[in-house]
């Protein structure tokens, strides 16, 4: 990757072609974002549809949920700090930071596959979520209509992205992102307030759903993965920060951090009430999407499902943007294609079509969350920032910074190991009853 040294009044040693490419690529093309863009981009990236699965992950999950909120806020702070730690250079992409820490080749091999699994994984899961919420909306509004298969709803949801994916960069999707952030707060509020109105269910049980010890352990592992999935914003944080202007006097980390703090407060307002109240009202009988457990009042639940659709549209775009950036960088810099509308049109539509197709094939929501959650979210969110921090800043052994980072690493590695196991088992259990393209 060519270093971007045009900020901080330094000499720009890029050729005219390199400069033109950087101005064309989604991440580096616009650098005039305001701090509140970072707030709603982060809310949209964080408060995934994962929030609706949180009541399902409760029980021992409460402690993990709170702990995760603290750990991920800390690792997010580290990433915001590291964005411009080398004077005159900005790490606009997660893998550029990885390359600085681990070396050109190794940095790419460590970061890119994980980041791609997260971003593409989120996009696939959101295809399914968008389709399911549209279907739920249709079924609620039109009870006597003919049953329409989930496959068609996923296609309808995807059709929006065949249009939106052509917005060039992060700043151009800020309107979509703002709408999505507002929606996430709205449907979270609907989810917990409708649960309160419904009251604690008769013969509610708070024990484990599974009857066997093994079942219980696996369900807990899967719940950990779902919680990890709920904090996935780190994969796009440097890319979001890259859109904020920066000078030596006013580095981008100031406005970015302000946006992150606002976002994290909103995240807490979305996550904690939904998770705790939803679990309190339904116990272990809650569905892996709380809005499915709530049936009445019909208009309100229908509206909430529509909000989820709008929100997931925004989230899909935020996670797709770094993927588009990677694909376009590869095509233009390595394979020397000419930056053009046609190139963008073909690559982006192909990507949307691919995520749609996979979503149609594997719509088991909860298990996928657990599997991807542990496999890739835990590293990029919980401990990779700590490892990079330790390797670059080298804090003294047993100093506070050293201890905190190691605690986060141990916690993250544990999550990474156990949650895919739970998720995979959940997928196998769900797959037994599922028919392809039914």
How would you describe what is shown here?
The longest helix is centred in the first third of the chain and has 38 residues, at 104-141. The radius of gyration is 21 Å and the shape is globular. Helix 4 packs across helix 14, helix 6 (150-164) packs antiparallel against helix 13 (341-361) and helix 14 (365-393) runs antiparallel to helix 15. Residues 1-10 have low confidence and may be disordered. It has 15 helices and no strands. The chain starts with 15 loop residues before the first helix and ends in a 6-residue tail after the last helix. It has helices at 16-24, 35-46, 61-82, 94-102, 104-141, 150-164, 174-198, 213-230, 237-241, 253-282, 290-293, 298-334, 341-361, 365-393, 400-432. By secondary structure, it is mainly α.
Following the backbone from N to C, one meets helices and strands in this order, namely HHHHHHHHHHHHHHH
What percentage of the residues does DSSP assign to strands (E)?
under 5%
What is the helix fraction of residues, given as a range?
A: over 70%
Low-confidence stretches: 1-10
N→C terminal distance: 45 Å
**General shape:** globular
Overall mean pLDDT score? 83
- Find the count of extended strands (DSSP E, 2+ residues): 0
Work out the radius of gyration: 21 Å
Q: What is the makeup of the main sheet? A: none
The helix tally amounts to 15
Classify the secondary structure makeup into a structural class: mainly alpha
